[in-house]
Amino acid sequence: MIEVVVEKLIYGGKGLARHDGLALFVAGVLPGEKVNVEIKKKRKGFAETELINVINPSPDRITPPCRGEEECTGSSWSYISYPAQLKFKEEILLETLRKIGEIEPGDVFPIIPSPDTEHYRLRVQFNVRYKDSMPMIGFFREGTHQLVEIKNGFLLHPLINRTLDGIRKIADKLPPLKEIHMNVSPEGEILVLFFVNLESPPVLEPVFETLREEISEIAGIICYAGRKKYEVLGKNFLVLKLNDLTFQSTEGNFFQVNWEQNKNMIISILQLAELKGNEMVFDLYSGIGNFSLPLAKKAERVIGIESGYSAVEDARKNVESNGIKNIEFICDDVRKGLKGLIEKKEKGNLIVLDPPRAGATKKIIDRVIALSPEKILYVSCNPTTLARDLGWLREGGYQLNRLQPIDMFPHTYHIEAIAEMVRE
Question: Is the pTM of this model over 0.85?
């Protein structure tokens, strides 16, 4: 056991300390705290440690608003006061941009806090393991395959917690499960996706009927056996309302887990876009049209590119149901879709880029640069890949003008941000 002082928090949520020239990473700490740790894994130049106790706690340390792993798993920063979480996320975001991308924004707007800091998650994927023939439903403990059963999850929408309780009550009627996914609409309906350890479909009507008696908000159950979808009981989509727009999301198609913050993010996108009504906008990784539809109400024309066929089907239905005429969706890999735009000599004033956590590839960034938009709005949930990609854009003649951090995931280390890159 060794005594150290924590220097700072880093992306990933852990604290950084040093001892005898070795960088030590430790979870559950705050900057300035004196702590005792035990080294668990030593690597070249750094070590992973376990927190033994806090000698001098930070004034930002609080008693977590959740109790034990059953409620707290997934909320890695529940011991940090919310104002301090926001401050640390801003600092981590800026440090990552400087260190990896060697990039400095012209203006940094204050991070937008989440209207809801508890029970905001509308989407979740549970793992299932069996003990004495009974299903254990929860999340893996970080860095392991040890399953922690979740009950009254602190970050999960109350309807997810209620549905989980209802599923446990009928454990004897369930087929052998690998995973359970749940998606909740802001209006209060839930879809349940069962992934079963069978190659042939189980009989799920009794499960559906019994669950509906317990939880009337269940809109549908979808069952996957092997790699094939076998059964849909009820309906297989949710309806999501966003101000004056209505979106359909089928089964597992992506939508933001924090819907109130999604509204704030769209407001920020529109403010940074500064559209006058005569622009062509390209929306990359456009999904079900979360950004495309609001942008289309301000621009002359929007083209969305999305590789998921089901998401594009939803997006096209969303355009039709909302009476919007100036959007086209291309169902293709973003890299190939961009190549098609370049070959057609399409010219965009604005590109909105919202890639997955792994970021965009160099080829995609090169093709974005080749389209030569006046402005690029890069939406990111990972500061490290954001920094890398903004570095590539800077090499292509763009500079980081404004940066808007958004707290999409309270009580976790995850950081959302919108970076405005403008052509030099």
Answer: yes
